Amino acid sequence: ESTFFTSLLSSRWISNALPDGGYFIDADPILFEHILRYLRRGIYPLFYSPDKGHDYALYAALLEEARYFGICRLQTWLEEKRYRNAVEVRTWTETIDDGDTRPVNEWVEVYPKWGINKIYVCPRGITVHRGWPAACGRQCHNARDGGEYQYDEEPVVKLFVVHKEVRFNGDM
């Protein structure tokens, strides 16, 4: 698939072979690793991390290597920025009160959020009824004397959670 390697490995270039039969290729070893992986298996490179996003500088450098080595399909894939279709990030928010578990492909950022909880107060001051109106019986209802339920307001810390789920599309 590479015009460079097709020419290099053709019979015209035998004189350029090293004594052991190998060839010297002047290339950045980090970038060449991705070129070689693509040539061997047809796997397009994906330089993405959830915290930093795509590494556009690395894509640009690899594009120049693809041009140099004459790898047309990889060059087109990089020029058209098709790697942007290989990653989908879904974001949503929620407020939670308790601990939670998350799948491994999901990242969360947690922020404290102050709020107010209204806690039911028994009209007879019975502490075990606090926060639980159903615990009050006839005597409590009589003590309320037909009035409104009473509530205390208590400050509470809730967690505002920003979820990020990253999905990779391996067909790109």
| Oligomerization state | single chain
What is the radius of gyration computed over CA atoms, rounded to a whole number of angstroms?
A: 32 Å
The CATH class assignment of the largest domain is Alpha Beta
Could you say how many structural domains there are in total?
2
Order of helices and strands: HHEEHHEEHE
Largest sheet: 3 strands, antiparallel
Give the class from helix and strand content and strand pairing: alpha+beta
Q: Tally of extended strands? A: 5
Shape: rod-shaped
Structure annotation, total helices: 5
Fourth-level CATH superfamily of the largest domain: Potassium Channel Kv1.1, Chain A
As for the CATH topology of the largest domain, it is: Potassium Channel Kv1.1, Chain A
What does this structure look like?
By secondary structure, this protein is an alpha+beta fold. The chain folds into 2 domains: 3-85, Potassium Channel Kv1.1, Chain A (2-Layer Sandwich), CATH 3.30.710; 89-168, no CATH class. The chain has helices spanning 3-8, 29-41, 56-69, 72-79, 138-144; strands at 48-49, 53-54, 87-96, 106-121, 150-168. A hairpin with a 3-residue loop joins strand 1 and strand 2 (53-54). It comes from Aspergillus carbonarius (strain ITEM 5010). This is Potassium channel tetramerisation-type BTB domain-containing protein. Residues 3-74 form the Potassium channel tetramerisation-type BTB domain.
